Amino acid sequence: MNKNLALFYIFFVVTLSSCSFVDGEIKSFLKCGLAANQLGEHQAVEMISSKMKAYVNEEKIEGSARYVMELGQEVRDELDLYSKGLERQEYTLAKIYNSSKCLDMHEQEKIDMPFKYYLVYIFL
Q: In which domain of life is the source organism classified (predicted)?
């Protein structure tokens, strides 16, 4: 596991709860952070991590390492990256990274993708 991603997950070991709305928000942070990390967008990872930390502190969220691991696994299962080829993995990650929710989180420019990406976009 990449050092940045490991730090991203470890930070939240002590700070999560199991409220379903909170679960959705935390999973969004994890999903965007995973996409940014896998695409090598380190500045975006830092921004997402910073915003997640602020969210956790603001909402006074508490939890366990096991809970974080379960949410992280749910995110990985939902993305199902390992059943896809490398090109499709990259396209899936770029679709997440370029989503409006993630763009708000990381405040970076969209990743430019080749025309072929837009042909398969709806199937990702």
A: Bacteria
